[in-house]
């Protein structure tokens, strides 16, 4: 179930830590993408740019800004996994890394994610892979220009907007608490069809919807004013066939020219509005349970206070470390910010995996046809990990790469490959090619001795779209568990080193004591010999005198 319990809350360490919306970030040639960015919340000990890490995430169908998802009846049920919540979820799994969520260049019919700037595709985002589409060059340019955009924002503007967003979040949270208290009081009164409270009970579902609409993420304009997204008129939605019918039948998408033109015009108007106000800070709003992110450190802590974020021991230590190491500067993460020179971790979820697949095509092109391209070789050398999270799309082939030559090139690059799956993709008998292609992908990489791990989540549950989205949480929990294991191993190694140091010191002390005792014994022996020699000399002298 996507909706969680009452203990689920959207939790951010500080509003100055984002998430930030940066609109129309320029990339390769005339390409541009909107980006959701979250800075790290734990400062690295090393200040070298090469030691920093950037997590680059490509989402799936439906995933968009929360206000856009709210206006679409098909995606409203998955508000929990909007792009901003996904960024925050990733930040909790990678607290020392920069989180970069790349929004698709278009959302066809407000449903289908289309990453045309990285890989060509049709109106449903089904990819048409080519040996070279300059996807890697586009990624590098995005990282360069994103760094410049973040550095260029005046510090006082970020802090002022963050304060406004925090105030708006507090107001919304108070309104939500008041509404919840009203509903709670109403349910304790005996039902009477003629009383006003009975009317409240009868319309409780409508009230829940109203609360849903009020508690959207809040953005702030350039003047520091809170901007609430405008919802389109329901009559306009009903009159738009592309909105109401586009998600129901993939086969009719290409033929609906009128709906497509209307949607593209809407996208153009929205982009113009975004370019006029290019940077927004999303407020950490207390969303309702159905829309919220169930963080891994809140899973067993649903009874914690509503005014505090429930955090695990590891996350609490991370935030304490962040507080102690930021030297009083909440924007310390902007120091030496060069995301294009950071180590890169690439993550694709569902439809977003088509971008990772296109990268594989371009790896092979660059390594075999242009091996002397030093600039791109430097970028490739910085990619340390690639994650495929339940990859899939509406096509009937190329869900997973199965070409041996491409996978051989991927193996030679030496990066860590991670596959996380659910039954929704690999156990669907209506789409058997996904299971076959994933098996070929995984087994071939293993035969090539590539560093690959594979995890199947929720294998004892029915295959459905809910568990498909929840692989994001399972993946983050897995990463968090690995981080905890590494932390424990480091602590154990430190303890062993300390114990070894104590043991070595004890051994040295014992050896020193033994040496001292031996020296004392030798000195005593020398003294005894000298005494005996002296006595003998006296006796000899006495004998001579006689």
TrEMBL record:
Residues 236-278, 295-318 are annotated as: Disordered. It comes from the Eukaryota. GO terms for cellular component: mitochondrion. Transmembrane segments: none annotated. Pfam families: C2orf69 (PF10561). Residues 264-278 have a biased composition (Low complexity). PANTHER family: MITOCHONDRIAL PROTEIN C2ORF69, UPF0565 PROTEIN C2ORF69. This is Uncharacterized protein. It comes from Drosophila madeirensis.
